[in-house]
Amino acid sequence: MVRPLALVLATSCFAHAAAQSPLEDVVKAFAPFDLDGDGRAEVRELRWREERGQAGKPLVVVLVERRLWRPESTLPAAAKGLDQESLRLPLLQFVRDIAEEGRHVLLLTIDVHAGPPHQDGRTVLAMRRLLQRMHAVAPMQAAVLVGHFPDAMLVRTCNWRRNEVLQLPGRDGKPVAIDANTTNLRAVPEVVAHRCDLVLADLDGDWERCYVPGPSTLRSAWASFGATVPERGGACQALQVGEIAVADVFHVRDGRAIADPDAFTLHLDPNDRDHEVAVADRQCFNPMALPDIAVSRIDARGLGWWPEAAVELDADDALQPREREVTAGPPRWSAFAAQETGQLVRYFERNHRFRTSTRRAAEHHRPASISHELGSGFAALRAADPAWADFAEPGYDVHTGADLLELFRWLQRPAVLRTLRAHSDPWGAAFAATDPDALQRELGLPWHWVKDGERFVPSWRDHRSGRADHVFWRAVGAKEPAGGPFLLLHTGCEALSPPRSDLPYDDPEYGKLGHAEAILFFSECVAMLGRAKVFYDEPREFAEVLGKGGTIGDAWKRYFELESQATNWDEVGGDIGRKRAYFWSIVGDCTLRLPKPAGR
Question: What is the CA radius of gyration of the chain?
Fold first, then answer.
């Protein structure tokens, strides 16, 4: 039986008073922490709040943004019924739930650097130092970040051998045509992960060496040597050099390319690589950084926005969008912290339901896949449970005609493990063209306005193309949930990339109305594994790890292990693809496992 939250709070405080944890010394001594000694602490405050579970068990650290530990005393109608302790109590229940699964759990509040200069990566490194120190005292299993924290952005330069039709400048400056039978070399820095939580999770790698605070420049080169690329380079037939401006990134350099434009040469050193990789991990055939712990984020700040004077309560106390005069202009979205708090409270309530309903009715213990133009993922999910080998109920493997209406109906079908496969970006995913009138009948009026004569009216008209963005997911969240909480594998490109990731994390536009968070907080999703780059892969053995009782964090870590064990780089995408696991991270709770149905 689950105890009332008030009792949880009282007994947890008593338990902490009875004995002091050896980890408490780490917490007390850590902050303020100034990584580079410039007088600006990256970690300004760190407070011990709660310890649960038995020492010696795998350690999970829950880091909560200090701002959220003291929620607003007055909440709007959107968060009706929530009091001043609204987030604190669910967080304590969250810690207790994790501990009752056989873990040692710490809840800490933390205040990190905000404001100029733009140094998000340095703050991530400071937080990593904290995890390293705690891991040295008590081996960690995972860290869950609750609230809004900086992300690590990853840039990679690889000596990439390519065959393609293109033109590059010759020695005389005139363009040289290169055909598809000629191998050229491209050594151009590119963003490969707008969010890379591997930097926090790999506790023994040399990520501090890779940090580029900026503003700075990284050199680029593109060359053709003839039919093939010599291992060490040399004289070029065509050569283009330049610089890429960067600021606040982690630069992974795999192969050095040194251009001499006057001599018209490009010298290559393929062994100058893997600088971020720990010594032990370099022994793998495919050397790459491996996560020591799982890391995930539960951050609703990007959804804490309110359309001013454009939403009102109806007779049933439900929020409804309303029309506006053209003279008033389109609705202006303003930051509204109480929206963020309300979404977090609802998330932790859903997380608790997912954990405590460990024995699910058979009709809820099902896999479900939906895809548009990317192929079905249903077969991959079957590996999570032998009982799913022959499961073929209609509506659970949707891969033709997947419009927004079908996406909504698919979400209403009970399932505990899902995969979503559609072309995506940081704001949404692309599904089939959808009838806006049918959307209104099914989902009601959206929080989206279009000009209609002399008024701005709520309308689905702009979603005729099948765009599943925050507007769609908010409408889904306003309906009575029917499918139950679920784990999600999202294989769409940039699904986990925060919008406007070029800005400092504390800029109001950073992460605003993002794709991943809209799914996490407006649907019944409790954890989502996704990619923060345009690429083509997916984590191998994802379902198998869950089927063996592993967490979604374990499934994430397993992908790195498998990639590192490749016997040939061609197995993992060649030079450009061999570190593709770096592109993946988790939003939600990385400590969650796949529940088992009743009778097992």
Answer: 25
* Among 170, 259, 249, CA closest to 221: 259
136 CB neighbour count, 10 Å cutoff: 11
Are residues 226 and 176 in contact, defined by beta-carbon separation less than 8 angstroms? no
Range with the poorest average pLDDT among 340-349, 350-359, 491-500, 559-568: 350-359
Residue 486 carries which side chain, given as an amino acid letter? F
Pairing of strands 183-187, 486-490: unpaired
Q: What angle do CA 182, 184, 188 make, to 5 degrees?
A: 160
Residue 260 dihedral angles phi and psi, to the nearest 5°: -125, 95
User: Do the Cβ atoms of 225 and 236 come closer than 8 Å?
Assistant: yes
**Alpha-carbon distance values, 479 to 42, 444, 446, 566 (Å):** 41, 9, 12, 46
Please name every residue paired with 222 in a beta bridge, in sequence order, or none if there are none: 186, 240
CA–CA separation, 517 and 495 (whole Å): 10
227: left (phi > 0), else alpha (psi -120 to 50), else beta?
alpha
Q: List the structure tokens of 499.
A: 């919008």
Enter the DSSP assignment of 481.
P
User: pLDDT digits over 11-56, tens only?
Assistant: 444 344 445 678 999 999 999 999 999 999 999 999 999 999 999 9
The mean per-residue pLDDT over the stretch 560-564 comes to 97
Sheet holding 216-224, edge to edge: 160-163, 183-187, 216-224, 238-246
Cβ atoms of 524 and 487 within 8 Å: the answer is no
Q: Tell me phi and psi for residue 463, to 5 degrees.
A: -105, 15
Mean pLDDT of the chain: 91
Q: Which fold has domain 366-597?
A: Rossmann fold (3.40.50)
Work out the number of other CB atoms within 10 angstroms of the CB of residue 456.
21
Question: In the structure, what pLDDT confidence band is assigned to residue 71 with cuts at 50, 70 and 90?
Answer: low
- Give residue limits of the domains in the chain: 5-146, 154-283, 366-597
- Burial call 487-504: b when 16+ CB within 10 Å, e when fewer: bbbbbbbbbbbbbbbebb
pLDDT at res. 337: 80
pLDDT digits (tens, 9 = 90+) for 368-397: 999 999 999 999 999 999 999 999 999 999
Q: State whether the Cα torsion 277-281-282-285 is positive or negative.
A: negative
